[in-house]
Amino acid sequence: MAHRSDACHIETFNKLLGQSCEATISTTPVQIPSLEYLLALKIHALKSMPEHRTMRDLDDVLRLIERYKIDVDKEEFRDLFIKHGNIELYERIARIFRKN
Question: Cα(48)–Cα(50) distance, rounded to whole angstroms?
């Protein structure tokens, strides 16, 4: 019998998979998560992971924002942080982009 946390992980994975697209890398089919889910995963990692990952995940989020020209002042972007991280993380990242 699966634990409750296993069921939550499976449900989360299925949502992620449902929002992904298929690509091929060196003849191997892979699923690529949507931008929203990728950001959500990175934001969650920033909130919950050990300090040694912070710079890597923060850099990933900053690069995604830059690459996809995300407006950090949009409500949908802020809501990702409220749902998967916290308002302090949002303010920190938004401040970086408002300076530029």
Answer: 7
